[in-house]
From TrEMBL, chain A:
Residue stretches making up the MrpA C-terminal/MbhE domain: 683-764
Location(s) in or outside the cell: Cell membrane; Membrane
Name under which the protein is recorded: Na/H antiporter subunit A
First and last residue of the signal peptide: none
Residues annotated as domain NADH:quinone oxidoreductase/Mrp antiporter transmembrane: 126-400
Keyword Zinc: no
Keyword Iron-sulfur in annotation: no
Membrane topology designation: Multi-pass membrane protein
GO MF: antiporter activity
Keyword terms, alphabetized: Antiport, Cell membrane, Ion transport, Membrane, Transmembrane, Transmembrane helix, Transport
UniProtKB/TrEMBL annotation, chain B:
Keyword Membrane part of the UniProt annotation: yes
Main location: membrane
The encoding gene: mrpC
Taxonomic classification: Bacteria, Pseudomonadati, Pseudomonadota, Alphaproteobacteria, Rhodobacterales
Designated name of the protein: Na/H antiporter subunit C
Protein family: Belongs to the CPA3 antiporters (TC 2.A.63) subunit C family.
Location within or outside the cell: Cell membrane
C-alpha cells in the first residue's frame, strides 16, 4: 500500500467514530479497529521491501519554494515505529472498548485516538523535516485532547494544559532547530540532510541547532528537567496512558534522536548533553517511582526512567549503544503497555490504584497477577524475559562509557538506576498481589472479561518469547539499527543471547536485583526518610511560572488595552505619524521630477466643496442627519474627482456605492439617537484636534511628495496596457485587470464581500433571536412616522423605472470589457434598482416577489466565478486562465465572447447578493419595530390624521 | 492640481481622524468612512494624476492613466462598503442590546451608579 494511504487512513478514519456514535459502542470501536487494521496491513505489505533493505518513498510537492514537500519514506526505523504505533494501537482500541464506561463519549475518544495515531505515523514516515514538524505539533494537540478527555476532572484539564505547554514550547524550539538544520544542509529533505554529516557538524550553528532540536526531543520524551509533565498526564484514561505515555508519543523524541543520529551524534556536545540528561532522568525517575503509591504514577515515573535509559544509550554515540536503544524500545513498549493495561484493570475492578489499599490480589485476580508479574519482572531485568536482555546490553554499554573523565560514574549510576528499577518492580508485585487478602477494597476485585486481559496478555507472550528466544528479534533489530546508523557506522556483530559468560554487566545486574530485593525489605523505614525529605514539587513551580508570566503579560497589556477604542485609535495614529516622520527625516529625499499641473477653476470649485463638506461634517457632526448629507457631498466630490482624473470606472463605482452606503446609514440612524451629546472635555477635543491635524499633515506631505516624483522603479502598469487587448481581449484595461490579470484577487474579494454580508445576516438573526426582539417590538419611534408609508408617486415611479434600471445594468455589464462598466458597477446599479422597490413599496411587498434568497445569489456568483476558473483546468491551463473569440451572428455585428464575461457574471451576482443581503438584514430589524407591514403597497395609514392625539400635535 | 489633491487627502484624513476619536458609534463610523475616502484617493493618486486620458484603449492614443491603482481602488471601494455595513451592524446591535452607543468601555462605577439611580 502506498505510504500516503497509511498516513491518511487514520486521519480520514477519524471522521467515522463520531458518526458511528449513535450506532452503538461496539460499532464505534469496530470501525476504529478496522481503520487501524487497514493501515496496519498496509504497512505490512511494505515489509518485503523493507526487509530487502530498500527505502520506500512517496512524494508530492506541496510548497516546493519553501522546501516543504509532502514526502514520505519508510526504512527499517520508520517501519519499526509504525509497527509499534499501529500494532499496539490495535490492542489499545480493543482494550479501550471494554475500559470506557457507558457515560464516556466513545466516538469522541476514538476520534482523538485516530487523529493522534495518524499524527504519530506521520512523524515516523516523514521524509521532510518541515512536514515532520507539522505532524509533531499535531501529536501535541491530539494528546492534549486525549489527556483532557475527562473534562470534568480538574486534574485532567491541568495535566493536559501542562503537557501542551511543555511539549508545545519544546516544539517551538525544535522548529528553530530544524530551520537552522535545513539552512545548513540546503534542503529540508531528511534523505539529503542525513548525507551531510560533515557539513552540518562543521557549521558554527551546529550547537544551536542541536540544543534546539534536543529541547524538542527532551520535552516530548520527558527527559530531565522536563520530565514533570508526564506523571501529571496520567490523569488521562488508562488506554491513553498505555498508548501515548508508554509506547508511542513519549518515544517520538527518542525516535527523532535516533533519526538524526547519523548527523547529530558523535560530537562531544551531543555526548555530554544527551548522556547526562538520560542518566539523570534514569536515576531520578527510578528513585521517585519507588515511593509513589498511585500505581499509574509509579508506572509514569518508571517510564520516565526507562526513557532516560534509552536516551543515555543514544547519547553514547556508539553503534552498540544505538542497537541496545532500539532493542530496549521494543522491549519497553511491550512490557510497559502491558503493565499500564494491568494497572487499568486493577483500577477498573478494585476501584482504586492506591498501592497502600491493595494487596493479596494474587488469589482474587490470578490472570491479572500472571500478566502483571511477568511484565514487571521483565522490567526488573530478570533472565528469560526480554527486559533482561536489553538491560544487560545497557549495562555493558555503560561499562565502556567515560563521562566527565570518570570511568566509574556512568556504570555506578546505571547500576543504581537498575537497582531502584528492580526495587519498584518488586514493590509493585509484592504490595499489590502478595500479602494477605483484605476485606476493605472499595470494590470486590475479580478478573475482568477477556476483552480487558487479552490485549496485555498478547504483549506478555511477546515479552516471554523474546526473552527466551532473543535470536528471533535479532535480525529485525539489526535491520532497524542499520537504518538508524545510516552510513555513519557499521552494525555491531555481537549476537543477542541470554548467557554472555561472567562479564561485568552480569555482576552489575546481580547487584541491581539483590539490591532491589533489599530495598523492598527496608521499604518502610526508607519511605519515612523519603517523606521527611524536602522535595521541590514540580507542579507548584510550573504553576508559579505560568502565573508570573501571565501577571507580566497583564501588567504590560492592561494599561495599554483598557477598553477605550478612542485611546487605541489615538495611540495608533500618533505612532504611525511618528514612524513616518522618522523615515522622512532620516532618509534621503530626491528632487521633484514632475511638473505641477495647473489647477483649473472647475477643479478648485470641486475642491472647495469637498473641503467645505468635510469641515461641515466635523463642525456639525452632532446633528447626525446633517452629517449624513454632508458625507454624501464628500462622496460625490470624490466621484467627480475620479472622472476628472481619467478614472470613469472608479467614478461609477464610488457613485453607486455612495448611494447604497447612505441608504444603509439611514436605516441604522432609524434606531440610533439623532444627536450626539456633548461629552468630551475641551482638553480632550484639543488633543483630538491636534492628533487629527498631525495625521492630516502627514498624509498631505506624503501624497504631495510622491505625486511630484516619478516612481523609483518602472511600474508594471505598462505590461497591462500593452497586453490588455492582445491577451485579454478587452480595451477597458481596468476591467481586464479585474477579471483577467488579477482575477484571482477579484475572486477572493467577492468571497470576502459575501462573507461580510453573511456576517451581517447572522448578526441580525442573533439579534432577532435574543432579547433585542422584544425591545424592538416595544419600541416607540422617537419621531413621527409618515402617514403615507408608501407614497403613490414614488411607488409608480420606481416600478416604471425598474425595467429601465435592469436594462442599464445589463448594458453596463456587457460593455464592461471594452468601455467603463463591468460586473461590480452593474451589480451595484441593479441593487439600487431593487432597493428602490423596497423603499417605495415596502418590505413585505418586495420580499413576497423575491424568487431567490440573496444567500443563494451570493453563492451562485462565487460558484460561477470559481467554475469559470476551474474550467481552464480542462484545457490544461492554470486556474482562471481566460480565453476569448469573436463571433458573428447575422444580422448583428461581430462581437466578442470571452470566458472573462462569465467570471464577471459571477462578480455581478455576488455583488448584488451581498449588497441586498446587507440592506435587507437592516430593514428586517426596522420591520420588527414598525409593526406588521402591509402586503398592499398603496394603503394609507389614517392614524396620523386622527385628531385623537392632541398631545402629539402640539409637540410638532 | 497635485496640491489640491494632496490637501484634499490631508483634510479628509484630519476630519476622519477627529471623528474617529469621538465617543459615540455614529460619528466614529462616519470618521472611518472619511478615512476610507482618504485612503482610496491616496492609493489612486499613487498612479499620478492624469487628466483626460482614461485607460480605455483607443487607436492612435499613446498616453493613458495608470490602470493598476484604479483596479485596486475599485475593489477597495466595494469591499469598504461591505466592511462599513458590518461595523454599522455591530454598532447597531450593541446599541439595541444595551441602549448605549458609547465606543469606549464605560467605567464600572458609572454603571453601578446608573443602576442605583434608575
Amino acid at each position: 500500500m502506498s505510504l500516503f494511504y497509511i498516513v491518511a487512513l487514520p486521519f480520514f478514519g477519524a471522521l467515522l467514530p463520531g458518526l458511528m456514535n449513535s450506532a452503538g459502542r461496539a460499532a464505534t470501536a469496530g470501525v476504529t479497529f478496522t481503520v487501524t487494521l487497514a493501515a496496519f496491513v498496509g504497512l505490512l505489505t511494505n515489509l518485503p521491501s523493507v526487509l530487502a533493505g530498500e527505502v520506500v518513498m512517496a512524494r508530492v510537492d506541496w510548497m516546493p519554494l519553501l522546501g516543504l514537500n509532502f514526502s514520505l519514506m519508510l526504512d527499517g526505523l520508520g517501519f519499526f515505529f509504525a509497527l509499534l504505533i499501529l500494532g499496539i494501537g490495535l490492542l489499545i482500541i480493543a482494550y479501550g472498548r471494554n475500559y470506557l464506561s457507558r457515560d464516556d463519549n466513545m466516538g469522541q475518544f476514538f476520534t482523538y485516538l485516530l487523529l493522534f495515531q495518524g499524527a504519530m505515523v506521520g512523524i515516523v514516515l516523514s521524509d521532510n523535516i518541515l512536514l515532520l514538524l507539522v505532524f509533531w505539533e499535531l501529536t501535541s494537540l491530539s494528546s492534549f485532547l486525549l489527556i483532557g478527555y475527562w473534562k470534568h476532572l480538574p486534574e485532567g484539564r491541568q495535566g493536559a494544559r501542562m503537557a501542551l505547554t511543555v511539549t508545545g514550547m519544546g516544539g517551538l524550539a525544535m522548529i528553530g532547530g530544524m530551520l537552522i538544520l535545513g539552512q545548513i544542509a540546503g534542503s529540508y529533505d531528511l534523505s539529503v540532510i542525513l548525507q551531510n554529516r560533515e557539513l552540518i557538524q562543521a557549521d558554527p550553528l551546529y550547537v544551536a541547532a542541536l540544543i534546539l532540536i534536543l529541547l524538542g526531543c527532551f520535552t516530548k520524551s520527558a527527559q530531565f528537567p522536563f520530565h514533570f509533565w508526564l506523571p501529571h498526564a496520567m490523569a488521562a484514561p488508562t488506554p491513553v496512558s498505555a498508548y501515548l505515555h508508554s509506547a508511542t508519543m513519549v518515544k517520538a523524541g527518542i525516535f527523532l534522536m535516533a533519526r538524526m543520529w547519523p548527523v547529530l551524534s558523535g560530537t562531544p556536545e551531543w555526548f555530554v548533553i544527551v548522556t547526562t540528561a538520560g542518566l539523570i532522568t534514569m536515576v531520578l525517575g527510578a528513585v521517585i517511582a519507588l515511593f509513589k503509591h498511585d500505581l499509574k504514577a509509579l508506572l509514569a515515573f518508571s517510564t520516565v526512567s526507562h526513557l532516560g535509559l534509552i536516551t543515555m544509550l543514544l547519547g553514547t554515540g556508539t553503534a552498540f549503544g544505538a542497537m541496545a536503544a532500539m532493542f530496549h524500545i521494543l522491549n519497553h513498549a511491550t512490557f510497559k503497555a502491558a503493565l499500564f493495561m494491568s494497572a487499568g484493570i486493577i483500577d477498573h475492578e478494585a476501584h482504586t490504584r492506591d498501592i497502600r489499599r491493595l494487596g493479596g490480589l494474587r488469589k482474587l485476580m490470578p490472570i491479572t497477577f500472571i500478566i502483571a508479574s511477568l511484565a514487571a519482572l521483565s522490567m526488573a531485568g530478570i533472565p528469560l524475559l526480554n527486559g533482561f536482555l536489553s538491560k544487560e546490553m545497557m549495562l555493558e554499554e555503560a561499562n565502556h562509557t567515560v563521562l566527565f573523565n570518570s570511568p566509574w560514574l556512568v556504570p555506578v549510576l546505571a547500576t543504581v538506576g537498575s537497582l531502584f528499577s528492580a526495587a519498584y518492580c518488586f514493590r509493585l508485585i509484592g504490595h499489590v498481589f502478595f500479602g494477605p487478602v483484605r476485606d476493605d477494597y472499595p470494590a470486590k476485585p475479580h478478573d475482568p472479561a477477556a476483552g480487558l486481559w487479552l490485549p496485555p496478555a498478547i504483549l506478555v507472550v511477546l515479552v516471554v518469547v523474546i526473552g527466551v528466544a532473543p535470536f528471533l528479534a535479532e535480525p529485525f533489530i539489526k535491520l532497524v539499527t542499520a537504518s538508524v546508523l545510516g552510513d555513519a557506522a557499521e552494525v555491531p556483530k555481537s549476537y543477542f543471547k541470554i548467557w554472555h559468560g561472567l562479564v561485568p554487566a552480569l555482576y552489575m545486574s546481580i547487584v541491581a536485583v539483590v539490591g532491589g530485593l533489599i530495598m523492598l525489605l527496608i521499604f518502610k523505614p526508607s519511605l519515612r526518610i523519603w517523606d521527611a525529605m524536602p522535595r521541590p514539587e514540580a507542579k507548584v513551580i510550573f504553576e508559579a511560572i505560568v502565573e508570573s508570566v501571565a501577571k507580566l503579560a497583564r501588567a504590560i497589556i492592561l494599561p495599554l488595552h483598557n477598553g477605550a477604542f478612542s485611546r487605541y485609535a489615538a495611540i495608533a495614529a500618533i505612532t504611525m505619524v511618528a514612524v513616518g516622520y522618522h523615515a522622512w527625516s532620516t532618509g534621503t529625499i530626491a528632487a521633484p521630477t514632475r511638473e505641477m499641473q495647473p489647477a483649473t477653476p472647475v477643479a478648485v470649485g470641486g475642491w472647495l466643496m469637498l473641503v467645505a463638506a468635510t469641515a461641515g461634517m466635523v463642525m456639525m457632526h452632532r446633528n447626525r442627519l446633517l452629517s449624513l448629507i454632508l458625507i454624501g457631498i464628500v462622496g460625490l466630490m470624490v466621484s467627480i474627482g475620479f472622472v476628472f482624473f481619467s478614472a470613469p470606472d472608479l467614478a461609477m463605482t464610488q457613485f453607486t456605492v455612495e448611494v447604497v452606503t447612505i441608504i444603509l446609514l439611514l436605516l441604522a440612524l432609524n434606531f440610533l439617537p439623532n444627536r450626539t451629546p456633548v461629552e468630551s472635555t475641551v482638553l480632550r477635543r484639543v488633543r483630538d484636534t491636534s492628533v487629527a491635524i498631525f495625521g492630516g499633515l502627514a498624509t498631505f506631505a506624503l501624497s504631495y511628495h510622491y505625486m511630484l516624483r516619478d516612481a523609483v522603479t518602472a511600474p508594471i502598469s505598462e505590461f497591462h496596457l500593452a497586453n490588455s487587448y492582445k491577451g485579454g481581449g478587452g480595451t477597458n484595461v481596468v476591467n481586464v485587470i479585474l477579471v483577467d490579470f488579477r482575477g484571482f484577487d477579484t475572486y477572493g474579494e467577492i468571497i470576502v464581500l459575501g462573507i461580510a454580508a453573511l456576517l451581517i445576516y447572522a448578526l441580525t438573526e442573533t439579534l432577532l433571536g435574543g432579547p433585542v426582539r422584544a425591545h424592538l417590538l416595544n419600541r416607540k419611534p422617537d419621531q413621527k412616522r409618515a402617514g403615507n408609508k408608501h407614497p403613490m408617486m414614488m411607488v409608480v415611479l420606481t416600478r416604471v423605472i425598474m425595467p429601465v434600471v435592469l436594462l442599464v445594468g445589463f448594458y453596463i455589464f456587457l460593455r464592461g470589457h471594452n468601455e467603463p462598466g463591468g460586473g461590480f458597477i452593474a451589480g451595484l446599479i441593479v441593487s439600487i434598482g431593487v432597493v428602490m422597490q423596497y423603499m417605495a413599496s415596502g418590505f413585505g411587498w418586495a420580499s413576497a416577489r423575491l424568487r431567490y434568497p440573496y444567500h443563494g445569489v451570493i453563492g451562485a456568483g462565487v460558484l460561477i466565478a470559481g467554475l469559470t476558473g476551474i474550467g481552464s483546468w480542462f484545457v490544461g491551463k492554470p486556474f482562471l486562465t481566460s480565453d476569448f473569440t469573436y463571433v458573428r451572428i447575422p444580422p448583428f455585428e461581430e462581437f466578442e465572447l470571452a470566458t472573462a464575461a462569465l467570471f464577471d457574471l459571477g462578480v455581478f451576482l455576488a455583488v448584488v447578493g451581498a449588497v441586498m443581503l446587507s440592506l435587507e438584514s437592516f430593514s428586517r430589524l426596522a420591520r420588527q419595530s414598525g409593526g406588521p407591514d402591509s402586503e398592499h403597497a398603496l394603503d394609507i395609514d389614517p392614524s396620523r390624521d386622527d385628531p385623537k392625539e392632541p398631545a402629539e400635535k402640539e409637540a410638532v | 492640481m497635485e496640491f489640491l489633491v494632496a490637501s484634499a487627502i490631508g483634510i479628509l484624513t484630519a476630519g476622519g481622524l477627529y471623528l474617529t476619536l469621538r465617543l459615540r458609534t455614529f460619528p466614529v463610523i462616519l470618521g472611518i468612512s472619511l478615512l476610507t475616502y482618504a485612503v482610496n484617493v491616496f492609493l489612486f493618486a499613487s498612479g499620478r494624476l492624469t487628466v483626460g486620458a482614461p485607460p480605455i484603449l483607443t487607436k492612435g492614443v499613446e498616453v493613458y492613466a495608470d490602470p493598476l491603482p484604479q483596479a485596486l481602488v475599485l475593489t477597495a471601494i466595494v469591499i469598504s462598503f461591505g466592511m462599513t455595513a458590518v461595523v454599522v451592524m455591530i454598532g447597531l446591535g450593541a446599541f439595541l442590546g444595551s441602549d448605549d452607543d458609547h465606543v469606549d468601555d464605560q467605567p464600572e462605577s458609572d454603571d453601578a451608579e446608573a443602576e442605583g439611580t434608575s
